[in-house]
Amino acid sequence: MLIDFFYTLRSAKLPVSVKEYLTLIEALKEGVVGPNSEDGYKIDDFYYLSRTALVKDEKHYDKFDRAFAAYFKGVEMVADFTKDVPLEWLRKNLELELSPEEKAKIEKMGWDELMETLKKRFEEQKERHEGGSKMIGTGGTSPFGAYGFNPQGIRIGQDKGRNKSAVKVWDQRAYKDYDDSQELGTRNIKIALRRLRKFAREGAADELDLDDTIKSTAANAGWLDIKMVPERHNNVKILLLMDVGGTMDEHIHRVEEMFSAAKAEFKHLEFYYFHNCVYDFMWKNNRRRFSEKFATWDIIRKYNKDYKLIFVGDATMSPYEILQPGGSVEYNNEEAGAEWVQRLTNAFPKFAWINPEPQGVWQYRQSISVIQQLMSQRMYPLTIKGLEEAMRLLSK
């Protein structure tokens, strides 16, 4: 029954063996997950079972999710909207182009006014609007819609923002996990990370201690006396929190290079994802970020102060996302992101922020300035020099 599914996974370059496939079949026969009397097998139950049986390393989760979705396409439609917006309202017929002078004339709303006005628009709008300044639509100067311009609004339905000025997004977007197997374009990133090292000998004695062997053999009248010691490992512990999606899409390649280097360099590396700013939960799997949440409080309690905290993100967002309860573009967070940033930096005294945005534009982004203040100015560019400076700070 699942032979084609097995071959789909192999086609996606997943290291799935026949033995693992047979384990999945056996689990189904033994009723580890069973059919629901009304709906048959629940796709979520089968997803977790098959991933557990077939995937042995979490770095392959993204490939598995894509292959799973391709094979079972149409089995389940997922929606997480509190209000449906007819697709006809958001069809792209024109894309507005304004001069800098025209853009400067458009006033932006405050947070409370923006949310209250959106509520009214949902109640009163009955048809498509295009090129206007008020309703939910396309190609205009309204603060609600897509493909137009407004200095501060709520983006609805557009795949990716052109002006990066939305304070909230009425959409559920799919983000891709950073691939830690990404081949490095340069070894310099690894070399920069090696400035953060603290070696200790761990594990079984399986490495030759040449100096002690020579000394012991000489003391033993020439009879060979081999001495072994445990292998030396970098004992530094890293908690890596990475921004993903939205404006970070422009930096995927460079962040993947850094992630791959960090995975190779640090034995004790824990990582989580967030979007724009940290709030009350994070995740490890971007395709299932709403069903596999990790409470930020639990993360703070789980890791001790020995861990060095590294944020990776462009810090490019609406300041509301950092300073305002409910300011997240994706959901109504009860506490401001700034509160969670401060809790994390208080819990882990050795911390730094790595920013892939060119340092020359930092002064023009209000949100970057806010994050710099929260991080006590410990923000460094994602360059070789920036990484070396950050590692030097963390090693003190």
Q: What is the number of E strands?
A: 13
- The end-to-end span amounts to 58 Å
The biggest beta sheet, please?
5 strands, parallel
The helix/strand series, from N terminus to C terminus, equals HHHHHHEEEEHEHEEHEEEHEHHEHEH
Bin the strand percentage. 15-25%
Supply the helix-strand structural class. Answer: alpha/beta
How are the strands ordered across the major sheet? 8-7-11-12-13
Unreliable spans = 74-83, 181-186
Task: Output the radius of gyration.
Answer: 26 Å
Average pLDDT score = 77
Shape: globular
Q: Report helical residue fraction.
A: 25-40%
Number of helices: 14
List keywords for this structure.
single chain, 396 residues, alpha/beta, four-stranded parallel sheet, 13 strands, 34% helix
Structural summary, described in words:
With 396 residues, this protein is of the alpha/beta class. The protein contains 14 helices and 13 strands. It has helices at 3-11, 18-29, 43-54, 61-71, 100-104, 111-124, 188-193, 210-219, 252-265, 296-302, 320-323, 337-347, 366-374, 384-395; strands at 137-138, 144-146, 153-156, 166-170, 199-208, 228-234, 237-243, 268-274, 281-283, 293-295, 307-312, 351-355, 379-381. The strands form 4 sheets. Strands 8-7-11-12-13 form a 5-stranded parallel sheet, with helices on one face. The longest helix is centred in the first third of the chain and has 14 residues, at 111-124. 30% of the residues are buried.
